[in-house]
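Budget justification aside, the reviewers requested a transparent look at the raw inputs and outputs of the sequence design task funded under Objective 1. We therefore reproduce one unedited record. The lines immediately below are the structure tokens for a 135-residue chain.
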């Protein structure tokens, strides 16, 4: 009877050890997935901010008004955005814009790339989104 009890204790101990390792692995995968989703949304927000700078909503109020233009801006160097809202805390986006030399007269063609990064230390995740824009 003592041998059966000892066998059951050993088997139960191995079963508990295996289940605890599975739970730890599962929680790590969930954390990685959450960071990946947050990085995706940071990259998407970066694209939207880049589009807002490329195509501002303000329109010219007069011919002499140079501060409010309805035309698209020229692509500049890469811009970095650090987010502080609760959903994107510890996230940032790097947005770059490239203007294509299109042969069609009057058509402007832009390539926007946004890299969203979330997390710190060994728990980081990044996602890259690209967008083509024609005017």
């Amino acid at each position: 009877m003592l041998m059966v009890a000892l066998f059951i204790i050993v088997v139960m101990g191995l079963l508990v050890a295996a289940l605890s390792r599975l739970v730890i692995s599962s929680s790590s995968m969930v954390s990685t997935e959450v960071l990946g989703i947050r990085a995706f949304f940071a990259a998407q927000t970066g694209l939207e901010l880049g589009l807002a700078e490329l195509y501002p909503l303000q329109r010219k109020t007069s011919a002499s008004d140079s501060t409010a233009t309805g035309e698209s801006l020229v692509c500049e160097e890469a811009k970095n955005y650090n987010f502080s809202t609760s959903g994107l805390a510890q996230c940032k986006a790097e947005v770059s814009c490239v203007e294509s030399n299109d042969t069609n007269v009057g058509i402007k063609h832009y390539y926007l790339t946004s890299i969203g990064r979330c997390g710190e230390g060994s728990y980081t995740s990044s996602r890259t989104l690209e967008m083509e824009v024609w005017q």
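The beta strands are 79-83, 91-100, 109-120, 123-134. Residues 54 and 90 are 26 Å apart (CA to CA). Computational costs for records of this kind are itemized in the attached budget.
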